[in-house]
Each structure stands twice: as C-alpha cells, then as structure tokens.
Design a protein that fits this description.
The protein is of the alpha/beta class. It contains 6 helices and 4 strands. Strands 1-2-4-3 form a 4-stranded mixed sheet. It is globular.
C-alpha cells in the first residue's frame, strides 16, 4: 500500500465496519479494512462525510445485491455496488457484490473491491455515471484515487 500525507481523513471519527455476507472465507485474508480506511486520505472532503458517524461496507454476492436493487429501485438484475446514505443518524452503507467484482476486475479482487468502495463513496458525494461523459469522469477520478493507494500495472 502506498502511503501519503495529503489531506486529513474526513471521517476520522466515523466507525468503519466491514460485514462479510459472502461465504468466501478467503476475503478476510485480503486485509481490506486498511485499504478502505486509506481511501479517505485521498477522497475529496465534504460536509456530508464530515458528519457521518458510521460507514458499513457489506460484501455480498449476486443474490443479495439483486434483493437490494429490487427493494430500493424496483429493478431486477445484478450490479457491482450500491451506495446508501442515511440522515438520522448520519451514516453510509456501501454494498459490494464480490461475485461481480471478480467477474469484471482488470486487476486483483482486493483492488476491485477498493475501487468499488471508492465508486460508492463518489456516488454519495453526488457524482453520477448516468451518461458516457459523466461515467468517464467518475471512473477517471476513481482510478486516480485507487492509484494513490495501490501501484497498478
């Protein structure tokens, strides 16, 4: 992991919880939490993130993400990440589909999970990927942040 001193961690007071709903026990060996915490050294600060008291990162599979997508958006299908922000108390939930992450990763699964976490946080901050231009901008910003944490090939 690369280290850096750029900026302060805006969610230093937030509790970061990593929940494993996916049955793959090898995920725990990836030491994800240290990388997910490192994201906040490089993510743009915002008043929303400064107020957050709890961040939950849920690692799940296709079946669970389908349920979440249907419940919140009324649409069927699989996606890679879902971002939810709650106001009372201020908290964030990022749900990452590990199975989709494995299918789509151009690098290792650890990097893809961190990239999807970054993508989810960017959505919380108001970034959108609803058209080609916005998607390219958002993916570029996510990749820039990821490269500050990992040395990618």
């Amino acid at each position: 992991m690369q280290t850096g001193s750029r900026g302060k961690i805006p969610v230093a007071c937030a509790k970061l919880r990593l929940l494993y709903l996916h049955p793959d026990s090898s995920l725990k060996k990836l030491q994800l939490k240290q990388y997910l915490v490192a994201v906040h050294r490089h993510i743009p600060t915002s008043s929303l993130l400064n107020k957050v008291k709890d961040i939950s990162i849920v690692l799940c599979g296709d079946q669970e993400i389908r349920r979440v997508k249907r419940m919140f958006w009324g649409r069927p299908g699989v996606t890679d990440v879902v971002s939810l922000a709650y106001l009372d108390p201020p908290s964030i939930e990022i749900i990452i589909n590990v199975e989709q992450a494995r299918r789509q990763t151009p690098w290792g699964v650890r990097q893809e999970i961190v990239f999807l976490y970054i993508h989810g946080i960017l959505h919380i901050l108001g970034h959108r990927d609803n058209n080609a231009k916005n998607r390219a901008r958002m993916l570029g910003l996510g990749l820039k942040i990821l490269r500050q944490i990992f040395i990618l090939d």
